[in-house]
Design goal:
The structure is a single chain. It is built from ten helices and no strands. Helix 5 packs parallel to helix 7. The longest helix has 25 residues. Helices cover 79% and strands 0% of the residues. The radius of gyration is 16 Å and the shape is globular.
């Protein structure tokens, strides 16, 4: 049972990460939080996310625009330590419910408000504070991509522009989080044993996800993101009762 849940989280999360440039934690959390504590799950998700991002980066890096990614990343580097510091103090049921609520709010925004609100280009000056908020969520839950997904949807960016931001920002947050997790002693034997099992599965699934990304259009990309967000929220809410 435990191995099947770990494998399912790695495969689904890896596929989504390869497809969208974010979302590993969104999809894997509901599986892994059933069998592992948050203090193991969060660094494990960051590790798999980083591995998947690094694998697909050679095909994505041309989509990255530094002027957009840099302020988001600098803000995220400030926010991540605060999120990690909060992680050991959040009880598991509340952690699951909070993450599920965050995903549901994100999905509600995307479905109801995103097409009605479009920010002008000068709104990009707020990338830095958005990055801080994203970093906090990334540190406490490896869900740095949720805030940036909402934010990117406000500017009418293309599939490629969104993917470049997601990939660069989330990879930076995952790598920095891993450094802090190691420094603060979160990477124990359970983490390393589990990582050896889930990382290969993540890489296989990420490769398949990237190939799908290269074959879908802007509208299809948005629909896939919305569907995956809904499924991940349902998955995590169900896991609250286990």
């Amino acid at each position: 049972m435990e191995l099947s849940l770990l494998a399912a989280g790695a495969l689904v999360g890896g596929f989504v990460n390869g497809l969208t440039g974010f979302g590993f934690a969104l999809m894997s959390a509901g599986f892994w939080l059933i069998v592992l504590p948050p203090t193991t799950v969060v660094p494990l998700m960051a590790t798999c996310m980083a591995c998947g991002q690094l694998l697909t980066m050679p095909r994505i890096w041309r989509m990255i625009e530094v002027r957009r990614v840099l302020p988001l990343t600098l803000g995220g580097l400030i926010g991540v330590p605060f999120g990690i510091a909060m992680l050991p103090h959040v009880p598991l049921p509340q952690f699951k419910a909070g993450v599920a609520l965050l995903i549901c709010l994100n999905l509600l925004f995307v479905l109801v408000l995103q097409n009605r609100i479009t920010l002008p280009r000068r709104g990009e000056r707020f990338h830095f504070p958005i990055g801080i908020l994203s970093g906090i969520f990334g540190g406490i839950s490896a869900l740095s991509g949720v805030v940036t997904t909402i934010w990117a949807g406000l500017f009418g960016w293309t599939k490629q522009e969104k993917r470049g931001v997601f990939q660069a920002f989330n990879l930076s947050m995952a790598l920095f989080s891993l450094c802090l997790f190691g420094y603060w002693g979160f990477l124990d034997k359970q983490f390393f044993y589990t990582a050896l099992f889930v990382i290969p599965l993540t890489l296989i699934a990420a490769t398949i996800g990237l190939r799908v990304f290269e074959r879908i259009g802007n509208a299809g990309f948005t629909k896939v993101i919305n569907l995956l967000l809904g499924l991940s929220a349902l998955n995590l809410l169900v896991s609250v009762f286990f």
